[in-house]
Amino acid sequence: AIKKYEDIVGRYTSLEYKDTVLYRIGECYYRLKDYESAVKWFKILPTESYLYADALFWMAESLYNQNNFNDAIKIYEKITADFPSCKLIDHAYYSLGWSYFKIGRFESAAKSFNDLALKSPQSRILKNTIFWKAESLYLAGKYDEAIVSFEEFLKKEQTHKYSDAASYRVGECFYKLKDYKSAINAFNIFLKAYGDSTLKNEVKYWLGVSQISLSNYPAASKILIELNLSPEVPKDLSVRSKYALGWCYFKQKKY
Known about the structure:
By secondary structure, the protein is mainly α. It has 14 helices and no strands. Helix 12 (200-213) packs parallel to helix 14. The model has no long low-confidence stretch (mean pLDDT 92).
C-alpha cells in the first residue's frame, strides 16, 4: 500500500485526495511500527487540511512510542488547546496524561486525566482514566486527594481489572498519612473483597505493619506468622515480614 500511495503522490502533485493519501502513508508506517517514517509523513499534511488534527494525534502517538515524551506532550497539548472537537480528543487527553506519567510529572498527569473526566464524562476510556488519575495523585504524594479518587473509582468499578490495586492503594494512602486505624480498616476491606488477588500477601504485610504502628503487637504477630508460613510469599516480602515479626517479638520482650 505504501508503494502505491507514494507513487500516486509522486505522479500527481495536484491530486484532489492528496491529503488523504499523505495521511494513509503515515498511517501505514504507524501500523508497521516505523514511527520515525510515520512522523515524517504526518508532518507533510498542510495545517488547513481536514485531516490535520488527526495527523497531529498520530504524530504524537508515534513520538510517544519512541519514548519521546516531551515532544509528544507539546503536540497533545496543541490538540487539546486548538482542536477540542477533534474525534480523537479523549485519546489525546489520555495519552497526554500518560506522557506526563512516564516522565514522572505526576501532578500534571493527574490534571490531564481529570480534564478528560470533566470534558468527556461518557468516554469509553473513563474507567481507566479515573484509576490513573488516582494513581498519579498517589505518586505525587497527594494522599488525601488520591483516597477520594480511588474510592470514587471503587464505587463505580468493583470488578475492574484495577479494582484490587485501587483498594490496596486506599490502605497505603491512609498508612502514609499515619492514620493507621483507617489503614487497617481499608486493608481488611481489601482482604474481604479481593482475597484471591495477587496483592493479598502484600496487603497482609501492611496490615501487620499498621498494627505494629498502633502497638498492637499480638495482633501484628498473628498476621505476620501466618504470612511467613505461606508458601506463596516471594523472597523479598518474606524478608520484610520476618523483620517485622522480629520487631514485634522484641517489643513484647520475647527475646
